[in-house]
Design brief:
Elements: E1 2-6, H1 11-22, E2 26-31, E3 40-42, H2 48-56, E4 67-70, H3 82-102, E5 107-113, H4 140-155, E6 163-169, E7 172-173, E8 198-199, H5 200-212, E9 217-223, H6 234-241, H7 261-267, H8 275-280
Parallel strand pairs: 1-2, 1-4, 2-3, 4-5, 5-6, 6-9, 7-8
Length: about 280
């Protein structure tokens, strides 16, 4: 396929571009920053005109797209004022999704977030591990993600055959970013993330699988490693963090409290890069 990847210069974006090209796809990166040349076009995604034009065609780059992978965003609260985070991310996501549909593109995969599930989990979840049924926002970044999912669920109805997949990523770790896992025995480590993490290469694998398994409609999948990022047994850490919260199943010794059962079952996704191996290496 010919695929556009927004946010192609970011951590997850770079890994995704590499993965999709390795899969045999033609990939065009769309971002404000990037290496000029074949495979990249500089686009201000907050400008709908630029977005639509780049999705319809770019001279010397493409004359039509089969799919869009939307990863561009201000990635966390605090980099700019809170309202600016919300306004930017909602505007960019609307521009990309609506522009793609206007351009006749019917397959969209985009990055949602654990922040749409209740991060930083000051309130205990209804049950553990936390699955895709959980929806709660506690900051403006998370609020944008909740509203993006609501928007996608409506837009997918507007054109027959449209597929939009939201991938709820937890903290994405670079291949050389495992030094902090020396704190894995600290019960406060990754508390806001339910102890979860995912390698950027596995985040890219999730995109690849979502494109392969795209079907009409809107779907949400959690994307995380299957194991906890802590060396403390999961049942123990769950009882410490969320006393009295029921478990929906028997928890494995170091099972992640962010459930990826749906992604494993429906996409065949299972992370291949685990912190115990990467940190040891």
């Amino acid at each position: 396929m010919m695929i556009a990847v927004t946010g192609s210069s970011g951590l997850l974006g770079r890994a995704t571009v590499d993965r999709l090209r390795a899969d045999g796809h033609d990939v065009l990166g769309l971002d404000l920053a990037g290496t000029p040349g074949e495979g990249f076009t500089r686009v201000d995604l907050s400008d709908y005109g630029q977005v639509l034009d780049s999705l319809l065609g770019v001279t010397a780059r493409h004359s039509g797209l089969d799919a869009v992978v939307h990863l561009a965003a201000i990635p966390v609260n605090g980099l700019v004022p809170d309202a600016a985070t919300f306004h930017n991310n909602m505007t960019v996501s609307f521009n990309v999704m609506f522009g793609a549909l206007r351009a006749g593109i019917r397959t969209i995969v985009y990055a949602s977030s654990i922040t749409a599930m209740g991060f930083p989990f000051g309130e205990a979840p209804d049950s553990l591990p936390v699955d895709e049924a959980a929806t709660a926002a506690n900051n403006t970044y998370g609020l944008g993600k909740v509203l993006e999912e609501a928007m996608a669920a409506q837009l997918v109805r507007w054109h027959e055959g449209t597929s939009i997949t939201a991938l709820r990523y937890t903290n994405v770790v670079a291949p050389d970013g495992y030094a902090t896992f020396e704190r894995a025995g600290d019960p406060t480590y990754r508390r806001d993330l339910l102890g979860s993490y995912v390698d950027a290469r596995d985040g890219a694998l999730a995109v690849s699988l979502a494109l392969q398994h795209a079907r009409p409609g809107f779907e949400v999948f959690n994307v995380a490693a299957p194991d906890s990022g802590l060396s403390i047994p999961t049942a123990q850490i769950a009882a410490d963090w969320f006393p009295g919260t029921p478990a929906s199943k028997q928890l494995g010794e170091f099972e992640s409290l962010m459930s990826t059962d749906k992604a494993q079952r429906e996409l065949g996704f299972r992370a291949e890069h685990l912190w115990r191996d990467e940190f040891g290496a």
